[in-house]
């Protein structure tokens, strides 16, 4: 069963998964897919053809423009924006209002379990890796590695986080440890991998 507020605007051709809740004034456009057990907050926007995985949370007034792809377990904070236009203009060089044929949409891709903080802006076509964290207010202009935490304008990597979202601590042997779960990670070539997979 899904729970859609009477004031939400969900296109007839949108595909909404079981157990998903869509709140007051949210809009889900044509051909969009929202997975099971998601929470779509007040005033959130999901563009045409966007794909949102299972167990995602899009907080109030978050804007996810097509053709974004969000994997399972993604968090998008309040008023965060995933853009889709490399060269935004309202009009053509001749002064006419631009239509769909006048530009090519590019999307943001977000990996499993990643989090985008409040009022962050991800400039398409960036990729946010699995379990990465984008800090509140950051402006992401380049790809973010899995497990990385980035902050600032433009966003820069500040460290690593684990699946629990807490900063990892490095031990004397160079292994990264999660203080909440005890999981171990190894850094190699600017990437972080769980120790059991390396």
How is this structure best described in words?
- The chain is mainly beta and 198 residues long.
- It has 2 domains: 1-161, 3 Solenoid (UDP N-Acetylglucosamine Acyltransferase, domain 1), CATH 2.160.10; 164-198.
- Helices cover 0% and strands 31% of the residues.
- The chain is built from no helices and 26 strands.
- It has strands at 3-4, 9-10, 15-16, 21-22, 27-28, 33-34, 39-40, 45-46, 51-52, 57-58, 63-64, 69-70, 75-76, 81-82, 109-110, 115-116, 121-122, 127-128, 133-134, 139-140, 148-151, 156-160, 169-170, 176-177, 184-188, 191-194.
- The strands form 4 sheets. The protein has a 9-stranded mixed sheet with strand order 1-4-7-10-13-16-19-21-22, with no helix packed on it. Strands 2-5-8-11-14-17-20 form a 7-stranded parallel sheet, with no helix packed on it. Strands 3-6-9-12-15-18 form a 6-stranded parallel sheet, with no helix packed on it.
- Work out the strand percent: 25-35%
- The H/E string reads EEEEEEEEEEEEEEEEEEEEEEEEEE
The overall pLDDT, averaged over residues, is 95
- CATH homologous superfamily title of the largest domain: Hexapeptide repeat proteins
Give the number of domains.
2
């Amino acid at each position: 069963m899904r729970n859609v507020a009477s004031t939400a605007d969900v296109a007839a051709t949108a595909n909404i998964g079981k157990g998903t809740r869509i709140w007051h004034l949210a809009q889900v456009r044509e051909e969009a897919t929202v997975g099971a057990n998601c929470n779509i907050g007040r005033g959130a926007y999901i563009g045409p053809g966007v794909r949102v995985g299972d167990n995602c949370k899009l907080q109030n007034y978050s804007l996810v423009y097509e053709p974004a792809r969000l994997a399972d377990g993604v968090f998008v904070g309040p008023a965060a924006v995933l853009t889709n236009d490399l060269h935004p203009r309202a009009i053509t060089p001749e002064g006419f209002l631009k239509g769909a044929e006048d530009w090519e949409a590019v999307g943001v891709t977000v990996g499993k379990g990643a989090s985008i903080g409040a009022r962050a802006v991800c400039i398409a076509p960036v990729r946010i890796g699995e379990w990465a964290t984008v800090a509140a207010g950051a402006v992401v202009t380049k790809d973010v590695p899995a497990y990385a935490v980035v902050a600032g304008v433009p966003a820069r990597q500040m460290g690593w986080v684990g699946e629990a979202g807490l900063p990892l601590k490095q031990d004397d042997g160079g292994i990264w440890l999660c203080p909440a779960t005890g999981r171990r990670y190894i850094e190699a070539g600017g990437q972080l991998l769980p120790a059991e997979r390396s």
